[in-house]
Amino acid sequence: MKQIIPFGTLIIAVLLAILAPSTEVTTVEESTIDTGDTAWLLMSAALVLLMTPGLAFFYGGMVRKKNVISTMLQSFVCMGLITIIWVIFGFSLAFGDDVGGIIGNPSTFYMMKGMLGNATWPALPTVPIALFAMFQLKFAVITPALITGAFAERIKFNAYLIFITLFVIVIYAPLAHATWHPEGILAKMGVLDFAGGTVVHMSAGWAALASALYLGKRKEQAHTPSRISYVILGTGLLWFGWFGFNAGSAGGANELAASAFATTTTASAAAAMAWIFFDILKGKKPSAMGACIGAVVGLVAITPAAGFVTIPHSLIIGIVAAVISNLLVIWRTKKGIDDTLDVFPCHGVGGMVGMLLTSVFAHSSVNGAVTTNGLFFGETGLFTAHLIALVGASAFAFFGALLLLKITDMLAPLRVSEKDEVLGLDVSQHDEEL
């Protein structure tokens, strides 16, 4: 019976597609769709998708040789599974008609209804809504993939698929709606999240911490990364793709996209150097691994701020985030929490630092959407709203993930056996090996 269920869900998807082919064409008079903006968002969506294979290399190079394939597959499979969920009702949960400020109506865009024609999303009126839906899909894909670094080398693949399905529906979609839908509760509070500091990185980071605590430690914690070259390659792909992540979130080929592009470059470069120099300050040798981790932390931290802060302030965000995350890695190690690839210190904490510093340095001269300037400019409203949102979103993601882990464990045991863990997940879960 267990072998029938996975394929059976695909049969159900086929039946739903037959019953709801979504052939209706929406025609809007005086359409404002712009070919330049559309071209840029098409490219941005492709760049963001590239980040998931980049993450696979980034994580895959950090684990032991016997777990490289399984770790990389956990990222790759998100591109398949999350896409199906998104097309059927996931996009609607995140961006459908508002229900209480916390979730979208699953019937609004059910089976991509309303995607034909020249309809647009109100916040991005110059690109087709189908493109907006696919652009947002790529964010939904990479978020659960980020979590995998926390429980690498010890989770069963079938249980992992159940968990990320529940995560996208129960945690990611509500946070996306609350933050990015005009009627969302966080959006109405004035919370700013340009490209996913709260929605993507904080949610993944807190879920990662919950996963590490719930699954417990690996039997063999000390290990040498299998492929530093994979980590470097993955970092390059992530940095490249992140321009679509951040500059693409401007919604078009415009001056805001250029500003976000510049702040993204600057923060990541500053964080990479800050990580190296901070390691030297602690008496360590500069390492390729440290440079790569630092660069990614900078990308994470600038994500919520990219379209709201100036280029000089992005330097501060990158450096501060790198130092704090570096210190949190040390703290995590001392506490004995087996977050295998430091997802919480780097993505969770990096996202929180970026969120708070957004409320410190945001200014209306960068983006007219900033109605209250940051704390640095003498205004407190935005900073207060971000503090409240940080606590609320963190609690929701952490305790929600714990609940989903428990439910998943009841449906299918999460941890592999000690024998399979020692053998390695590549062979025990997939019958493959390097």
TrEMBL record:
SUPFAM superfamilies: Ammonium transporter. Residues 39-432 form the Ammonium transporter AmtB-like domain. It is a multi-pass membrane protein. The keyword Kinase does not apply. Keywords: Ammonia transport, Membrane, Transmembrane, Transmembrane helix, Transport. The chain crosses the membrane at residues 38-60, 72-95, 115-137, 157-175, 195-216, 228-245, 257-278, 290-309, 315-331, 343-362, 382-405. This is Ammonium transporter. It is found in: Cell membrane; Membrane. It comes from Sphingobacterium oryzagri. Pfam families: Ammonium_transp (PF00909). Belongs to the ammonia transporter channel (TC 1.A.11.2) family. Its main location: membrane. NCBIfam families: amt. The keyword RNA-binding does not apply. It comes from the Bacteria. InterPro entries: Ammonium/urea_transptr, Ammonium_transpt, Ammonium_transpt_CS, NH4_transpt_AmtB-like_dom.
